[in-house]
Design goal:
CATH architecture of the largest domain in chain A: 3-Layer(aba) Sandwich
Distance between the termini of chain A: 35 Å
Mean pLDDT of chain A: 96
Largest sheet of chain A: 5 strands, parallel
Oligomer: homodimer
Number of helices of chain A: 12
Number of domains of chain A: 2
């Protein structure tokens, strides 16, 4: 590729650039972002070659554009790039919800919607910012593409290729499937962990309670230390699927409650045994 | 101490012996247990000096008896030792619930109830059995004593001293307080984690779901790999407190659900922020 333009040169965007650079797959990286200081840092770190100052000019001849900003900013970015996208230019993103990003793209890309192939890289983000970017962040990590009906096969293949060059294992789901899957295995657990700590936090004896919390509590609540703003946005962006999951979980919890109420030892053991078996099988894969 | 008798020479009982042995605090350790092979192993490993074969004889002149079996076996053990306890002999245990153990002791120790000081060592148990026993298992770990009104100060002090010799940081709660605290910070999280995996396990698309589960899921569900039998017993032993916790958690979950339903971004952020703050403060202590 001759030119890749990245909006948001933080952990996700910066690592994308470093990974493609390592493969010598791109001639030039141009970065846009809200903070001049962090763009300057990204340039100093050799992540981008240039800081963009004219979206129209940079976007018209780009091979690929990555939107790696918070999802809430993407609608505006789609609107800014839409008038200037070259016919050859493809767009992908790094957002962790997909139906809302697709809706924003549809609303703002107009007849260029076919050039956008949504993506969700499943890569840890304990740190953030350009300084945290790593050339191997995506190595052997999953990236989920959620192509839309308008995408041509060739378009999807080109975006897939870019993520594969980053070392990612790429799979495909529909945007709807994606959001349902992640509501169940990621968004719900985060919500449950936040809720547990929030409940304890409101009690008069919270210090006493926490003084006896041990390693099980530590593991269970690690994700309750995640960014409140990011999880507020994800929760709302994937609200419908997440509400279904919370409802479903409340039903499951009631089953456990009833087993306790009925002193049903066999039922409790059955629930715990199946959970352990599935959890262990999964973790050994 | 001249003689310590241990019922159940596994991780908890074996580590207790090794820790006291390291301090040269005891002249002789005698072990009882259900499996002759594992007692033999404990002897080979230098954990106990002798395998007991006559409860009456070993118990009458022991300084301290530790019941380190599953809680479900303790009632029977209290009954077996009760007629033979020397006047100087004290009893403690290693069970993770306390009201039920106290009830079993009251029912079976008769007028010797004052000689029993309940204890709960908070020490990890990824492995089990005599071979997993460690001299430093209790080093800097919390042990909660839950004295009963019948205990004299001197009796509690002697049992406390034994656990402190093991390196433990000893604190005291009433049995009731203990069970309420651990329902909140340990038993409930285990139940929630089991419930999440159990819910996923029953779905038609569970393999697809699990194929996208990542590190957050891994942390959250680590405790769902715990022993189903042990957690069945703990759940039932601490049933009343645990049912209250599940109810309370369901209420909390409904608050989160309503925030989603009302698209209440501020409320979600408030919940997540307080949770993160409390979780981070706790983990830095």
């Amino acid at each position: 590729m001759n030119k890749v333009v990245i909006f948001g040169v933080g952990l996700i965007g910066g690592s994308f650039a470093l990974a493609l650079r390592k493969e010598q797959a791109v001639h030039e990286f141009v970065g846009f972002g809200r903070s001049a200081a962090s763009l300057e840092q990204a340039k100093q770190l050799g992540i981008i070659d240039r800081i963009g100052d004219d979206v129209a000019r940079e976007v018209c001849d780009a091979d690929l554009i990555l939107l790696a900003t918070p999802v809430a900013q993407m609608a505006e970015l789609f609107a800014r790039i839409a008038p200037h996208l070259g016919t050859h230019t493809l767009v992908t993103d790094g957002g962790s919800t997909k139906c809302d990003v697709v809706a924003a793209a549809r609303a703002n890309l107009g007849d260029k919607i076919a050039q956008f192939v949504p993506a969700h890289p499943i890569a840890g983000a304990e740190k953030s910012g350009a300084a945290a970017a790593l050339a191997d962040l995506y190595q052997a990590k999953k990236v989920v593409l959620t192509p839309i009906p308008e995408n041509s096969k060739e378009t999807v293949a080109r975006v897939r290729k870019a993520w594969e060059l980053c070392g990612a294992v790429v799979s495909e789901l529909t945007p709807q499937q994606h959001d349902e899957v992640f509501a169940a295995v990621s968004h719900l657990p985060h919500l449950l962990s936040f809720a547990l700590v929030h409940d304890l936090a409101q009690r008069d004896n919270r210090d006493q309670l926490l003084s006896f919390a041990a390693s099980g509590f530590r593991d269970f609540t690690r994700i309750a230390a995640s960014s409140p703003e990011m999880w507020r946005d994800i929760s709302l962006a994937n609200r419908d699927a997440l509400m279904r999951e919370v409802k479903r979980y409340a039903d499951e919890l009631y089953v456990v409650y009833q087993a306790l109420e009925n002193k049903d030892a066999a039922k409790l053991e059955e629930i715990f045994s199946l959970a352990r078996e599935v959890r262990n099988t999964w973790s050994q894969q």
